[in-house]
Amino acid sequence: ELKVEQNPLFLSMQEGKNYTIYCNYSTTSDRLYWYRQDPGKSLESLFVLLSNGAVKQEGRLMASLDTKARLSTLHITAAVHDLSATYFCAVAANYGGSQGNLIFGKGTKLSVKP
Amino acid sequence: DVKVTQSSRYLVKRTGEKVFLECVQDMDHENMFWYRQDPGLGLRLIYFSYDVKMKEKGDIPEGYSVSREKKERFSLILESASTNQTSMYLCASSRPGTIQETQYFGPGTRLLVL
């Protein structure tokens, strides 16, 4: 059974600081996703990581994937208040399949304070 | 842009009522999903469908059923609503067979069962 664990679950940061969110998963998968959710809103896709060593960057966020360690990281550089949100990682449950079922982590609630 | 819409943003129902949640997507996606989101538990898959009239149980199907009569529409039905079904319900869709197979989410329906 695929399990996805994120940590930390809560993260309070000061503006300008760097931090990393970790996502571990328990069985082999061929796709890992990062989503952002603002309070009261739906989920917005940030990144899709497909292969070992994949790295994607958008603004102050950078995601990476190590399939051997079954670990993805979401690194935040020089945080700003606008990044305050809940971040979810999700892992495709069907390895090589196409039904696209995702198993989600519990989310990391990020709060960036001035 | 992919658009996934849900029939209601907020619903208040009484215990024992039959509740219908509707989801419509406009991108001709084959896959559609229903999740519920609860604090501290992340997103959990209730049901998914990979074609018209096809459905598969997710992790927590008890107390729910679904209907997919048309490709663009996926309905979640609470046969007899109970207070433990108070939650945020999120619908998503995706196109199988693409490399990324990203799930796109609707705005969510916050259901309160009294």
Describe this structure in words.
The complex is a heterodimer of chains A (114) and B (114). Chain A is mostly beta strands and 114 residues long. Chain A is built from no helices and eleven strands. Chain A has strands at residues 4-7, 10-14, 19-25, 32-37, 43-49, 55-58, 61-66, 71-76, 85-92, 102-104, 108-113. In chain A, strands 2, 4, 5, 9, 10 and 11 form a six-stranded mixed β-sheet that branches. In chain A, strands 1-3-8-7-6 form a five-stranded antiparallel β-sheet, with no helix packed on it. Chain A is globular. With 114 residues, chain B is mainly beta. Chain B has strands at residues 4-6, 10-13, 19-25, 31-38, 42-49, 56-57, 64-70, 73-78, 87-94, 104-105, 109-113. In chain B, the strands form two sheets. In chain B, strands 2, 4, 5, 6, 9, 10 and 11 form a seven-stranded mixed β-sheet that branches. A four-stranded antiparallel β-sheet of chain B has the order 1-3-8-7, with no helix packed on it. The model of chain B has no long low-confidence stretch (mean pLDDT 93). The A-B interface holds A 31, 33, 35, 41-45, 48, 50, 88, 90, 92, 98-102, 104-107 and B 31, 33, 35, 40-45, 48, 50, 56, 58, 90, 92, 94, 96-97, 99-108.
